[in-house]
Amino acid sequence: MEKYRLYTNGMVDIESILNDWFSNEMHNHIESFDKNGCKVTIFIADKYFLRINSTLTLTTIIERSPNNITAVVITSGGAEGLFGYTYGSEHSAAKPILKLLKENGFH
């Protein structure tokens, strides 16, 4: 499992951008709710990779508060075998979404 946390104080509509991106994934689920005055949106996508003989899951959680936006990107399921080698698959799966977030003001 790999986990990344990014922030921005900009008011970009990242939920719409991520909705478009995740809609292109084969299997996805998107859920939004309010929690303690913050809007939380969870994006989940999974895809089977022959290279690692495993289904890899990419989860992105967006928490929008009045002053900033937090994005948490988590990849999991990319490990193979007794020792759990990922062969870089989890990092590779996170790269496009991290790039998209950084292009929209996250750091």
Automatic annotation (TrEMBL):
It comes from the Bacteria. InterPro entries: DUF6054. This is Uncharacterized protein. It comes from Anaeroplasma bactoclasticum.
